[in-house]
Known about the structure:
heterodimer, A: mainly alpha, 1 helix, B: mainly alpha, 4 helices, 0% strand
Amino acid sequence: MGLNRASDLKRLLRSLAATFGRLILAVSEEYGREVEQLMARTSERAAPS
Amino acid sequence: MPRPQGAQAPPQGAPLAGRRPSAPSSPQAALRAALRETRGGLEAAIRARIEGDDAPIEATDPEYGAGLRAAIPLAIDYCLDGIERGEASPPPLPTGLLFQARVAARSKVPLGVVMRRYFAGYVLLGDFMAREAEGWASIEPPT
Lengths: 49, 143
């Protein structure tokens, strides 16, 4: 019983870590994409016509 | 922005499992059931932690502050869905959180601040789980 509880907790913690890892990665990538788009727009505006 | 007073600590109390009327069938379900009881406290603790950091909540874009507050329950739900579904079947990423990441970039909120706020929530959620595990007497070492 004790071993089961310990492995349950381990599984929950592993799932939480994996889920959070996916989330933080996706958020930082999305942030990076927006920054790239903002920089591209700024460059377009600054470019001589 | 000065640090607001009264930043809340995570909700304290007896192990959550001890307060349940009946034991759910799986650890994942147990966690969900425990969260239903303390959901408000967990959200408030995360909000207080975010509001207590040194970075301003209200950025150049007024949309940012409202989006930040709305992101907290979305992120909690996403993490709990992930726990419930397991690593083999991860839930889809909430579009609201991805949208908010773009708003943060447009509002010139540094990525480090965005990450710090997510990690603050992660620590509090982990703390919640640890306190839940306190109710699992069988994982304690024998005395």
